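Page 42, continued from yesterday. The earlier attempt failed because a stray header line got pasted into the input along with the sequence. Redoing it now with the clean sequence only.
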Amino acid sequence: MALLSANPMDAMAAPIFRSAGASPIATPSTMAVDVEVVLAVDVSYSMDPDEQALQREGYITAITSREFMQALRGGMQGRISITYFEWAGPYDQKIIVPWRLIDGPEAADAVANEIARAPYRRASRTSISGALGFAKPLFDGSGFRGVRRVVDVSGDGANNSGTPVAMAREDVLSAGITINGLPIMLKRPNSFTMDIENLDIYYEDCVIGGPGAFVIPIREREQFKEATRTKLVLEIAGGMPERPVVPAQAANSRHNNPAAIDPKQRNAIAAILRPEARSSPRRAIGGRSVYRPWCNGTAPAGPPDPQGQSAARRP
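This time it went through. Structure tokens are written below.
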């Protein structure tokens, strides 16, 4: 069944990919799960083919990993629901895997195979706001009832098209949905594009939100699998990192609100994630959240000046 936007501009935009494909595999009635996860994956032209392949492989290996299965079994229900879509411009979103139930290795392998079979594509613009606006209503027709609902956004740039990302974020958060981020920071910022140097800080200031929201930046190609696995384990296990920006090789995680999660579950999260080297917490530039002024508009290029402004703009 197709998912159609109520926005009349959709009819004027091309391309529009909004087919939801097959119906969810589970049960006609609403099924209780530990968490409902929407994976929103950037396929804009700024993502080169190698990065796209690494990004997709990261999700495939994470979903089928031993750590993922351990986190899954540690939940109250022992199952989650998940859907995976790709996004670029304001009206360019395509569901690759509709809502699926993952309750064990076989179901996880099936979801991974669906992701792997999908043809690669690339498209113009980077509209995080469009991705968030598309993700929110997906929960209404999921066929599942999660204790938590999470939108998981991965991308390599700031919002440069569509409505301001702050508006879209607040709309999602108002529904009780948490937004986590996986900013991809492999390239040096280009003065002729809208790339920004501290994309992880931009994501923290403008994109993520909700209970336990966090960002895991990817700064090296070798971190794709580790970062994606860490992120999914935290989301499934319900862990809140001690800081909102988490290294890709996180060795630990714990709730900011100890009463909100059982200590045994918190210890299980730490045991699942292998102890590895940890980078330092990110430092706010100039002691403040420098990208926050950009959240209510499309971001200019380059690092902010003392007034948080920059004149360059992607063509």
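Notes: The helical segments are 49-63, 66-73, 105-117, 128-135, 165-173, 199-207, 224-237, 263-272.
Reminder to self: strip header lines before submitting.
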